[in-house]
Amino acid sequence: MIDVPLSALEVAMVQTGTRAVDTLRDTTAFAQRLDALGYHRLWYAEHHHSPAIGAFPPVVLTAHAAASTSAIRLGSGGVLAPNHAPIMLAEQFGTLAALHPDRIDLGIGRGPGTFDESTARALRRGAGPTTDDEYRDDVAATLRFLVEEVALDPLPEPWLLASSTAGAALAARLGLPLAFAHHIRPDNTLAALGHYRAHFAPSPWCASPRVLVCVETICAETPEEAARLSGPMDVVKAGLLKGHSEAPFPSPEEASVHPFTAEDRQALAAFRSQQAYGTPATVVRRLAEVADATGADELMLATPVYALAARLRSYELVKEHAAAPSATTPQH
Fold it and tell me: pTM higher than 0.70 for the full model?
């Protein structure tokens, strides 16, 4: 049993043999099905110039999904502050929140959203990497503009995304809810959350520490099918370990013949041990363990699975098995 709300992260993988527009169309069906299943929120990640991930602006996907769903919360997970003027982020998400009351989240992150330096510079009009102080100032300015310039009602719910103690420290200082990327940097999770809770300063946005933990989750009826479905993301991760991304997102059949090195397999096994893969019973048990170990108030599932039907089936299985028969679905 999992006694915290369950949410989802949409990464919008562009699959081999398909076009980016096909991935874009799938995002609508995905949002509508998660809404029907009772998932609490759905966030969209910002990426650029990746052959395996669609370059779809989170604000646009959020707007489209909000118009085609009825209850699920929607937003960015995250929109990357260094790539945007703070006042524009405030105006865009403030407008969405006014159009779709109590359903819009503004999750803010720091990374460039690309591994290509020239793309990162183009996003920032030639500027170099953001410093810690510049990032802090951008986040603070975005929050200030929401209140002072946009001043609509209700406002979006702001979150700070982090994968390190430094990001968690900023969330604590600003008094923001923290969304931690356990699916990216699991070795950092416990230390970062400990720092966040110990140093949290209450704010008008959040009265006490509030933590969402994102977990890579692949669920299937059998262990063999879960292993098969995890193969494509293993290929992507192996590429990232070498400093490049494979393109596009491979099929399970392509992944089954990928030449993983011994080092690849060791690193992938270590990562997998901290996530949630397998049958419903195994996945639910593992998610409950993560929730207990981290004290998470909410879990967000990242499910990088080839083919929309298989990806949705993973979310269906988790939702079907996550709650005891007497449990109630969290209200949106």
Answer: yes
